[in-house]
Amino acid sequence: MCEQSLNDYITEQCALIDAALDRLLPAEDESPETIHKAMRYSIFAGGKRMRPVLCLAAAEACGGLAVDALVPACAVEMMHTYSLIHDDLPAMDNDDLRRGKPTSHKAFGEGVAILAGDALLTEAFAVIAQVDDTERYTVRDYVRELAATGGSTMLIGGQILDLEGEHKQLSEPEVRTVYEGKTAALLTTALRFGGMSANATESQLEALTDFGYNLGLAFQVIDDILDLTASTEKLGKTAGKDVNSQKSTCPALIGLDGARSEAKCRTQAALDALMIFPEERRARLVELANYLLNREY
Amino acid sequence: MCEQSLNDYITEQCALIDAALDRLLPAEDESPETIHKAMRYSIFAGGKRMRPVLCLAAAEACGGLAVDALVPACAVEMMHTYSLIHDDLPAMDNDDLRRGKPTSHKAFGEGVAILAGDALLTEAFAVIAQVDDTERYTVRDYVRELAATGGSTMLIGGQILDLEGEHKQLSEPEVRTVYEGKTAALLTTALRFGGMSANATESQLEALTDFGYNLGLAFQVIDDILDLTASTEKLGKTAGKDVNSQKSTCPALIGLDGARSEAKCRTQAALDALMIFPEERRARLVELANYLLNREY
To answer: What is the pLDDT of residues B130-143, one digit of tens each?
Structure first.
């Protein structure tokens, strides 16, 4: 068990992460100001920081220090934020609200929003190039994995399939492929990067991969449930979008109850993967997984 | 002097580069097919391959082999192509033609074009992660430089300033800053990567940097002259765009004759920077610089 409450732990880790992001991003008044303002606007728009928090907790689970995982955690958060900016564009999901604020193209115009996404993606690689090598992992491993997870068969591939799946019925395996690419891949990388920063053994890294895959699927199922059941105000983004664009989602395919039980099942599989870690070391990841399962926004 | 004609040399190097690009990019029938088709459509749309050819020639100037520079040369070409796809979007320069073919968003729609650009940018880093370390340079140096040159103060910064400069009069130093970011930065990186793959000395790398900077400025001045003087058919992209969007360019600021003399002057400065290389070693770069100065499209 952890002495510090989960809320306090998350608050503390988020403060570390925000300070690191602030340090790693170009200053708002650096020229050209527009692009740096737009990059910071989306990064500091009040996201949950789920991926970097998981990255830090994974480092601790492997016996490392959270502070040593900050650089890869920030690279992952930058890649995540770029993908949100581009996904929200009119040519994609066409969303006006994100994290309760106007989306980047609403605030800055489409041209700047596209470039702000490009710049955060590029900056993610500038940041990952600053990672320290450990005995087992070098900067080359990090760059290769970040590029693969963000690439055309995973993060971008998921978004393409999602776009193509609008107004057409996908099968369950096809929906799972979308979820894997859109969500599970980068979430898994966040966990693996935390492990790598702590010089994790191969079996620890495998456990984190298994945990991340299942947690990522659970997370996206819950996201799609909330899109159907929660209010726009609570979500901080437009609710009911999936129905309106006739997206094939897990709850659309198997119903709300089926989707809820799928999310529970995946979370359990995620928790099972953690059993190779000593109890006190896995406690935070267990808490975080349960917290994500029970979230309401 | 070089025994092989420049045209034969360029043809031979382009064949090497195209084969490497084909090997490094995901296959067209790999899932999701749409994104891989779109990535390959723009990469193989008949570009001049100026940057990768310069990369290979720089490796040879430093006593290395062209073949050892192929990986970074392809990474640079992918980054260049991504920037063209995004620059052509309706929210940016809104161009329908590129290299004589419909632009990516005309061929695939805006959503896919944005993602194809994202995917090529990400793939550039996947490719640069495959570079061989030399005695003086490691993969970390390459990633750091590629991210910096593609980032918010250079490639993307140039495009932002260019966007903001439409319908408003920029000063000569401001126009130079746009040229540096939009063109000179990535061209310089192409040359430096060639040098790095040949384990160049510090002074060789400085000479290539100086050469690239001046050649890049000359190249962009000529581009803007051709936009005014050449036909759409010859250019393979819409001519007269800069006047229509009231862009501040070098010829708009100092006239066609002034711009022509600026391009010559910059080319001479570029050639001067090569003097540290033995004559037979610098001959190709000299020929390429003169070729770029005298081009008509």
So the answer is: 999 999 999 999 99
